[in-house]
UniProtKB/TrEMBL annotation:
Domain of life: Bacteria
Organism of this sequence: Nocardioides acrostichi
Keyword NADP: no
GO biological process, one term: transmembrane transport
Gene Ontology CC: plasma membrane
Transmembrane segments: 59-86, 98-115, 135-154, 190-214, 234-255, 283-303, 348-367, 387-406, 418-441, 474-496, 519-540
A Pfam cross-reference name: BPD_transp_1
Residue ranges of every copy of the ABC transmembrane type-1 domain listed in the record: 60-255, 342-540
Family, similarity comment: Belongs to the binding-protein-dependent transport system permease family.
UniProt entry keywords in alphabetical sequence: Cell inner membrane, Cell membrane, Membrane, Transmembrane, Transmembrane helix, Transport
Protein name (Swiss-Prot/TrEMBL): Iron ABC transporter permease
InterPro entries recorded: MetI-like (IPR000515), MetI-like_sf (IPR035906)
Signal peptide: none
Compartments, as annotated in UniProt: Cell inner membrane; Cell membrane
Length: 551
């Protein structure tokens, strides 16, 4: 019986194992070889030389500094807003929650363009002098990640046992003392876990830093891109990729351990949200401030896309930027129209979605089935650890690995239409797995045993027991994967061919070509991309699957 179960486990894991070996192990091995081997010989000195460069030191310092600053601000804003949205009851609360979720799912290119339009000298906040500054990058990172803190901390706050706080208040503690001595210690695991995840997201940010930082400010992600595409220094890019891989793996292990910290106050004895009081005014003000900070860049982006510059330099309102999307820009900026790039993005997103669902579904089934022997438990543990390795690879590193390894023999996939969907599927895979695993793990295994005792095979048991429970989270996972694929820029920037670009790649190319018409097209394309992603996420949000905050 044990041998039969192990054989079934191996059958489920065969396809994900094969895909990860070819499209993860091979690219990572290629990066290591490119960094440490020169002319067929081990060359540690070459890697060490990369790490002694002053520019490398500046890149590492800016990555750590910007991630730390953005994390602190995100936590400082996110915690009070989580209190308002999860502990207070007021009209429009669900709408505000949904609005503050939007930034996290917007493509990085869109956010970068929005902040650039807002902060340029002619922009609404141009007088602050933040255009091209490091604080513009931090603001963009906070824009993305405050919602992560809100959702993860808010969910924990919503489930806290209210009895300890009530007891402290009955003993004469003021509301501030109750928060400091009872509530905050209970929330600390959720806050620290959210902070670690936000730091990880900020440290691996790409599109925001690339668009807002230019060549003056670079993170490790954007430096890998710069070294590869501009300086053609593949050794430096490989060395930075290896360093980032190790750092991200350490952060993921730390975040995973922090998420497993038990919360001793979680209980079924919870209180529903209450009406706001006068003492809640500062926190309501912080929520209004964050909501305005989210709306301002998006509103500026939309307004900018509707402004057309006439021959005399005057700005008028119109739809010319949107009509121009069917063309190739001024001075032949593009090889294909923006509308064709959108079509490419949609087609690739469909392929990336079914690939990530197939792989993620199989992975979730493998890691959530109950082990009935020590051998099965060990095999499942090894597979679980192996399947989590792609979490430690950023999109830029993955795209770079594809570029330098999948270029010869039967694995020469540089011209294959399947390469970009596969890369984007691997980027979305952790999101799919995180969505499905908690649901599948919560299914009582006795139901599967009962189905098996009635003669149902493994496939029929999944269809009759698992599928009715998991279909809504599966649709949500599909929506997340589709949205991630539409906005993916890191890996795609390495792999997209000039005649088959995606919309984020085209937007970045338009930004790199001078002329107001090209810039207007970039703004209009960003709005179209943002609206497409927002529509997808609106459907996902209606499924009410609270899984985004645990990524």
């Amino acid at each position: 019986m044990t041998a039969k179960r192990l054989a079934g486990l191996g059958a489920l894991a065969t396809l994900p194992l094969a895909v990860l070996c070819v499209f993860f192990v091979l690219p990572v091995s290629g990066m290591i070889e490119r960094g440490f081997v020169a002319d067929g010989h081990l060359d540690i000195g070459g890697v060490l030389e990369v790490f002694t460069r002053s520019r490398t030191h500046q890149v590492l310092w800016f990555t750590v500094w910007s991630a730390t600053a953005a994390t602190m601000i995100s936590v400082g804003l996110g915690v009070p807003v989580a209190y308002v949205l999860y502990r207070l009851d007021f009209p429009g609360r669900r709408l505000v929650r949904a609005a503050l979720l939007v930034p996290f799912v917007l493509p990085t290119v869109v956010v970068g363009v929005a902040f650039r339009e807002l902060l340029v000298p002619s922009g609404l906040l141009g007088g602050l002098g933040l255009d091209g500054s490091k604080w513009a990058i931090v603001a963009g990172l906070v824009f993305f990640n405050a919602s992560v803190v809100i959702r993860s901390v808010g969910a924990s706050w919503e489930s806290l046992d209210t009895r300890p706080a009530q007891a402290a208040a009955a003993l004469g503690a003021t509301p501030a003392q109750v928060f400091r001595t009872v509530t905050l210690p209970s929330l600390r695991p959720a806050i620290v876990s959210a902070a670690s995840v936000v730091f990880l997201f900020c440290a691996t940010a790409f599109g925001i830093v690339l668009i807002l930082g230019g060549l003056k400010y670079s993170s490790v992600e954007s430096e890998i891109y710069f070294q590869t595409t501009v300086l053609l220094d593949l050794r430096a890019a490989a060395a930075l990729s290896i360093l980032q891989l190790l750092a991200v793996l350490v952060l993921l292990v730390l975040a995973g351990r922090l998420r497993r910290v038990p919360d001793p106050t979680v209980s079924r004895t919870t209180a529903g949200p209450r009406r706001p009081r006068l003492a809640d005014a500062p926190w309501l003000g912080a929520t209004a401030l964050l909501l305005g900070a989210v709306a301002l860049p998006i509103g500026t982006l939309v307004a900018g896309s509707l402004q057309v510059q006439q021959a005399d330099g005057a700005q008028v309102w119109g739809l010319e930027n949107y009509r121009a999307l069917s063309g190739e820009g001024s001075n032949a900026a593009l090889a294909v129209p923006v509308t064709q790039a959108l079509s490419n993005s949609l087609r690739i997103a469909v392929d990336a979605t079914w690939m990530s669902l197939l792989l993620g579904g199989l992975l979730a089934l493998v890691v959530t089935r109950r082990s009935r022997s020590r051998a099965e438990r060990r095999v499942r543990s090894v597979l679980d650890g192996f399947f989590m390795l792609p979490l430690g690879v950023s999109a830029v590193t993955l795209g770079f690995g594809f570029l330098i390894t999948l270029d010869h023999g039967v694995l020469d996939l540089r011209d294959s239409r399947v390469l970009i969907p596969l890369a984007q599927a691997l980027v979305a895979l952790p999101l799919v797995v995180r969505t499905l695993v908690p649901v599948l793990a919560g299914i009582d295994d006795r139901l599967r045993q009962a189905a098996a005792s009635l003669g149902a095979g493994p496939v029929r048991a999944v269809l009759t027991v698992d599928l009715p429970v998991v279909w809504r989270p599966l649709l949500a996972a599909a929506g997340f994967a589709f949205a991630v694929s539409l906005g993916e820029f890191g890996a795609t920037s390495f792999l997209a061919r000039p005649d088959r670009p995606t919309l984020p790649v085209v937007i970045y190319r338009l930004l790199g070509h001078p002329g107001r018409p090209n810039y207007g097209m970039a703004l209009a394309g960003s709005v179209v991309l943002a609206l497409t992603v927002a529509l997808v996420m609106l459907v996902v949000e209606r499924l009410r699957v609270r899984s985004l905050g645990v990524i």
